[in-house]
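Consider the following assembly input.
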Amino acid sequence: MTEPRWLDEREMAAWQSFLRAGSRIGRHLERQLKEESGLSHQQYEILVRLADAPDGELRMTELAAHLVTSKSGLTYQIGRLERRGLVRRRTCESDVRGVHARLTADGGRALRAAAPGHVAAVREALIDVLDRGELDQLAESLGRVARRLEEGEAHTGTDNTPRR
Amino acid sequence: MTEPRWLDEREMAAWQSFLRAGSRIGRHLERQLKEESGLSHQQYEILVRLADAPDGELRMTELAAHLVTSKSGLTYQIGRLERRGLVRRRTCESDVRGVHARLTADGGRALRAAAPGHVAAVREALIDVLDRGELDQLAESLGRVARRLEEGEAHTGTDNTPRR
DNA sequence: TCACAGTCGTTCAAATTCGAACCACTCATC
DNA sequence: GATGAGTGGTTCGAATTTGAACGACTGTGA
C-alpha cells in the first residue's frame, strides 16, 4: 500500500470543526429536549416524520430510512413511544408483515409542545450563528455529502439499510 | 409565549443537511474502523489524542474535554483499551487523585495501522466531496458554531463539563 | 402450485452510554 | 493544622443501541 494522502492543515480544520460541531450540537439538543419535553432527539424526529407523513402514518422501514437508527433501534423506540401513548402501531392490510406507525392525538400534542423549544435550541446552536450565505453554502455542501453516502449505503450489509 | 420563529425553507435545508451528513458520516466511519481495525471511532480518537499529546500522555479530564464522552464513558473506554494493551494508566505523581493515560507501543502500532484506512474513509465521505473553498467555508462556519457551544458548556451541570 | 430467495419487523444478547452517587484527595482559609 | 468546599476518577444501575438470528410472510419463476 502506498503512503496515504493525509489531511493537510485546512482539510484537518474542516474535519475537526465538523466533528466538534456535530457532537456539541447533538449534546445541546439532547439536553434541551430531555429537560423540557422528556423526549430524546431520536424520539422527536420520529414524531416529526410521522406528523409530516402524507397519510399521518408510515411503515417502519420507511421511518427507519429517514432516521439514523437500525431497524431494531426503531422497534425499541416505537415501543417506548407506544407505551407512552404518543404513537400507535397497526398492521398493514396489504402486507401482513408490515406495520404502520401513526401519531396519536397525544403524540401530536407532545410534538406541538416540544417544537418551539427545540427550534429555539437549533437556532441558538446553529442557525442564528451563521449568516444567510453560510447557511446556503452549508446546505449545498453537506447536502451533497449526505446524498452521496445515502446512495452508497444501498449495497452494504447494515441492518436497516434502505435498499431502494 | 409568543409564536416562535420557525425555520424557513433555506434554514431547514441547512439544518437537515447537517443532521443527515453528520449521522451518515458517523455510521460510515464507525463501520470502516470497526471492520478494518476493530476500533470504535471513540477509541480511535482517544489513541490520536494520546499520540498527539506533548508528553505522550494526558490526564483523564483533559482527554474527556477533547472528546465527546462523559467522564464515566471515558473510564469505560480507557478500561477497554487497557485490557487490549493499547493504553496504560498511571497515577499522577503530583496529584494522587489524577490518572495519566499513555499510549503503549502496541497502541502506537494499532493507531498507525488504523490511520490510513480511516483517513481514506474521511476523504471519501467528506473531504474529497468538497472543493477547497467549500472546505474552508465549512471550517470557518462550523468552527464558530463549535466554539460558541464549547464556551457555553462551562456552567451546565453535565457530567464531564470541561469547566475551564 | 410449488419451491425459494428476499423482505418485514421483532427478539435476543452484548456493548456502550449516561448521570448520579461516591470515595479519596487537594487547596484555600481560618 | 483543622475544616470545608471543590476535584478527579470510578462505580453503579438504567437506558439505549447494535447486529445477528429468527419467524412469518410475499412474490416470482419453474
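Residues 59-61, 71-72, 74-76, 79, 92, 95, 97-99, 163 of chain B lie near DNA strand D (CB under 10 Å from a C1'). Ask yourself how this observation constrains the way the partners meet.
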